[in-house]
TrEMBL record, chain A:
PANTHER family: CYTOKINE RECEPTOR (PTHR23037), INTERLEUKIN 5 RECEPTOR SUBUNIT ALPHA (PTHR23037:SF46). InterPro entries: FN3_dom (IPR003961), FN3_sf (IPR036116), GHBP (IPR025871), Growth/epo_recpt_lig-bind (IPR015152), Ig-like_fold (IPR013783). It is found in: Membrane. Residues 463-481 have a biased composition (Basic and acidic residues). It comes from Nothobranchius furzeri (Turquoise killifish). This is Growth hormone receptor a. Residues 462-481, 529-548 are annotated as: Disordered. The chain crosses the membrane at residues 241-264. It holds the Pfam family GHBP. The keyword tRNA-binding does not apply. GO terms for molecular function: cytokine receptor activity.
Length: 611, 204
């Protein structure tokens, strides 16, 4: 209760105080003062005053204006040179105006009451507000292609009161513009030139533009000029331009969509045309595509023949059987070693190093690399008949070429001659039958030390001879004998190398002892083979091989390749013996039809079997 | 005396073009100097009550008051060119040392920002540059025979301000700024008037 009373009284006091202060502030009489002093041209200036709220001002003339120029310590107050009591203005003309000199003004009333404010001191250059420019006009600069916006150049004249030409005043201009019905003005940057461009006005709307000035280096702006109105009517778009734009836009869009569709639908051809693939780096020699697709023949060719090589050449054996055959074919079509061999010479002859032939050449052409396993190059000093026979026997056969094979019948009598096969061949003018493969696979190794070679060549030889015999039909018993699968393989003493050499070749003079017909391997004896089933144990026979010699045992065809079973005590390779085969000899049937139950079947065998 | 003509033909316009360019450059320089002084002055005013007409409390006259300068347009136009040029040079010389000291005192005060300190240094440098520029203009004018050779390098400021040589040392920083601002405006105006008197056709 007491507190409440206390508060109320306090409140009352405060309020009264406030009211009193308020009264003092608001209702206090204002003494006469100067409202503004301004110069327009830096040569003259004028000041306006207000009498305030003082009472007892009977007439306006009571107040007098005095000024002081502080250019010397002994200056004194002087009265206003020119009064304009109507406006309550004091005008200082050029004679009374000095720039860069502080002026102080004061008002004096009756009784020499002076009303002076410190703030009423100034220098004339600081109170300059230049007049606005005159003669405003605008010109259209450019209209945008769409016709929606345009640029305008506004130009004007400097205010006549400002002496710009003598350089006394340096004036800057500020343009402001706004839309007709807008409230805020858009101001451009102040600049000293008498023209300026307004960018980006919209067509169809009216704009209001006005300009004001100020002294360069001083902050006060003058009044705004009279406004001018800028308007550009909207130009209707040309029909053709619009149409063209539309067409272009849609066309481009359509093309893009089409390209996208093509890309999405994976039309390879079109994609190739539109978006050609970036060429990938090509690695010389090996094409990755080949590896992917698994074209082994090409790959092999690249790796061995065409490319840089490097793979072991035995791989080529699998695939290059045919080329060998073709290559070694001794006939006019082939030019081994780059020389056109006459038909008289045969590969055999060449291989055997017989007089003029170089063996190395042959091998070099066929295979780029040296491979010890090939034993392609026999020394030319293979003088031994056995060696020759061996070599000859080792030569790849020519399955197809009938003529390449010596007729056993015909050749038989001439078997005495050492070089009969070749010579006979020569005499025949046909390539020798001994178109055996240069390399033959060791099919089996005999306990005696002989090596059973692949029957492939022999088979072919046999085949051909068979054909020949059939052709001729002269053979009677011989055919039957011929029909025997007479494969002659050279049995070589294994020396661990797997290949026959001249040394071992010499050893092949022993007659086949433990030759078993059904063993399925063949032996080639260095004895001259005759068509007639003469005893093969005649070392004086011609060193050619008659594959269909009657001496030949009946052997089942041996695969070109067999698996090495083991090494026996003599370090000989024991190959996978083919299964026992029925003795073929008496069968009038094609000897090649003898079943061959072996690991591998040569293509010829297979063909014969199936036929 | 005959001026060495730099133009092949004796065209008046050709003579004066390089001079007009020189003038323009000098005037631009002076305008910039005035702008900097104005900025500094406004900044100083933050520490004082802002005056209505930017007069403030100028307690003393500026030290350059002793230099008689034309205070109006007519006066400036009536005065001889040589005299006007000399006045300009006098003013520039008079402000060399004070501004340097002003800068020194500014940099020592912590309350002033680096910006202000840089400005004061710039101002001090500008006075030097401007003086050199005006000397060049005078030289050119003398070469062209526009003014006589009476205008020369006024030399050290001590020659000008004999008794008031130390007056500026007693001026407060604020007053100094005020005075310099005023004087830089004077210089700017005088230069412009001089230019428009000598080469009126080139941008007046």
């Amino acid at each position: 209760m007491i507190g409440l009373l206390c508060c109320a009284s306090l409140l009352f006091l405060l309020t009264s105080l406030f009211i009193g202060c308020f009264k003092l502030l608001i209702l206090a009489p204002v003494e006469p003062h100067f409202t503004e002093c301004m110069s327009r041209d830096l040569e003259t200036f004028r000041c306006w005053w207000s009498p305030g709220t003082f009472h007892n001002l009977s007439s306006p003339e009571e107040l007098r204006v005095f000024y002081l120029k502080r250019n010397s310590p002994s200056s004194e107050w002087k009265e206003c040179p020119e009064y304009s009591h109507l406006n309550r203005e004091c005008f200082f003309d050029a004679n009374h105006t000095s720039i860069w000199i502080p002026y102080c003004l004061q008002l004096r009333g009756q009784n020499n009451i002076t009303y002076f404010n410190e703030d009423d001191c100034f220098s004339v250059e600081n109170i300059v507000r230049p007049d606005p420019p005159v003669s405003l006009n605008w010109t259209l600069l450019i209209v945008s292609p769409s016709g929606l916006s345009y640029d305008v150049m506004v130009s004007w004249e400097p205010p006549p009161s400002a002496d710009v030409s003598t350089g006394w005043m340096r004036i800057e201009y500020e343009i402001q513009y706004r839309e007709r019905n807008a409230t805020t003005w858009e101001a451009l940057e102040t600049q000293p030139h008498t023209q300026q461009t307004i960018y980006g006005l919209q067509a169809g709307t009216e704009y209001e533009v006005h300009i004001r000035t100020k002294m360069k280096g001083f902050p006060k702006f003058g009044d705004f000029s009279d406004s001018i109105f800028v308007k550009v009517t909207e130009i209707p778009l040309r029909e053709s331009a619009v149409l063209l734009t539309l067409v272009l836009t849609f066309g481009v869009a359509g093309i893009l969509i089409l390209i996208m569709l093509i890309v999405v639908s994976h039309q390879q051809r079109l994609m190739m045309i539109l978006l050609p693939p970036v060429p990938a780096p090509k690695i010389k020699g090996i094409d990755s595509e080949l590896l992917k697709k698994g074209k082994l023949e090409e790959l092999d060719f690249i790796l061995n023949g065409g490319g840089l090589g490097g793979l072991p050449t035995y791989i080529s054996d699998y695939y290059q059987d045919e080329p060998w055959v073709e290559f070694i074919e001794v006939d006019e079509e082939d030019a081994d070693c780059g020389e056109k061999e006459d038909q008289k010479s045969s590969d055999t002859q060449r291989l055997l190093g017989l007089p003029q032939r170089s063996v190395g050449c042959f091998s070099a052409d066929s295979h780029p690399d040296d491979d010890s396993g090939r034993a392609s190059c026999y020394d030319t000093d293979l003088s031994e008949q056995d060696t020759h026979l061996l070599a000859a026997s080792l030569l790849p056969g020519q399955p197809e070429d009938e003529e390449a094979f010596l007729h056993p019948d015909e050749k038989a009598p001439a078997s005495e001659t050492n070089k009969s096969p070749l010579i006979q061949t020569e005499s025949e003018g046909k390539p020798t039958w001994i178109n055996t493969d240069l390399y033959a696979q060791v099919s089996n190794v005999m306990p005696s030390g002989g090596v059973v070679l692949s029957p492939g060549q022999q088979l072919r030889i046999q085949e051909n001879t068979e054909k020949e015999s059939q052709k001729k039909g002269t053979l009677g018993e011989d055919t039957s004998k011929l029909n025997k699968p007479q494969f002659q393989l050279l049995v070589v003493d294994p020396d661990g190398s797997g290949y026959t050499s001249e040394i071992t070749a010499r050893q092949i003079s022993t007659p086949p002892s433990s030759l078993v017909p059904g063993e399925g391997y063949q032996t080639i004896y260095p004895q001259p083979m005759e068509t007639k089933p003469a005893a093969p144990s005649e070392p004086n026979q011609s060193p050619y091989i008659l594959p269909d010699s009657p001496q030949t045992r009946l052997f089942a065809p041996v695969a070109d390749y067999t698996v090495v079973q083991e090494l026996d005590t003599h370090q000989s390779l024991l190959l996978n013996l083919p299964t026992q085969q029925p003795p073929p000899p008496c069968l009038p049937q094609h000897p090649l039809k003898a079943p061959v139950a072996i690991g591998y079947v040569t293509p010829d065998l297979l063909g014969n079997l199936s036929s | 005396m005959k001026a060495a003509s730099i133009c092949p033909n004796d065209q008046t316009g050709c003579h004066l073009l390089p001079l007009a360019n020189l003038f323009d450059r000098v005037i631009q320089h002076s305008a910039r100097m005035h702008g900097i002084s104005d900025d500094l002055h406004s900044e100083f005013e933050l520490y004082f009550l802002p005056s209505k007409n930017q007069i403030g409390r100028v307690s003393r006259n500026c030290h350059t008051s002793t230099i008689l300068t034309p205070n109006g347009k007519e006066n400036a136009q009536r005065i001889a060119r040589e005299e006007l040029a000399e006045i300009i040079l006098k003013l520039l010389v008079a402000w060399r040392d004070p501004l340097w000291h002003f800068h020194q005192s500014m940099s020592q005060h912590d309350e002033f920002t680096n910006f202000s300190s840089n400005k004061s240094l710039e101002m001090s440098d500008m006075v030097h540059e401007l003086r050199k520029g005006v000397l060049k203009v005078v030289e050119k004018m003398q070469m062209l025979g526009i003014i006589s050779n009476s205008v020369g390098d006024t030399g050290s400021p001590e020659a000008l301000l004999t008794s008031d040589s130390a007056e500026w040392r007693f001026m407060k920083d604020y007053d100094l700024l005020y005075c310099f601002r005023r004087d830089s405006n004077k210089i700017q105006n005088y230069l412009k008037i001089l230019k428009c008197r000598i080469v009126p056709k080139h941008g007046c």
